[in-house]
Request: fold
Amino acid sequence: DRVRKYVRHLERLWGRGRICCGYTKSLGLHEDGRVFTWGRDGADATAPRDAGHVAIACGGTHGVAVRNDGRVVTFGDNIAGQRRDSPRDAGFVSVACGVWHSVGLHRDGRVVTWGSRDGAPE
Reply:
């Protein structure tokens, strides 16, 4: 009963938004494109604060968002290159994350990966 009440609250709050969970944080994508973070360390100060995002994904301790122009925004920890190695070009339509890496699907069909390539921090 308590869980259903919480889910109904989230539905009213987020409308057609999205929510994802990582190891230490969760992300919410509001229907207007704003990204919200919460978790063990509170809100993530490195997360984007503006509207205009169309997709989100959670890694272990990092997050990824896709802007409406297809540019990838990364935030959170960078212990395995999750932020440093992210793509700089536009045109991404979807993202997904593992614990130490991220994957982006480009509109031209390319699949791009960044972060740790061996499954552990560098």
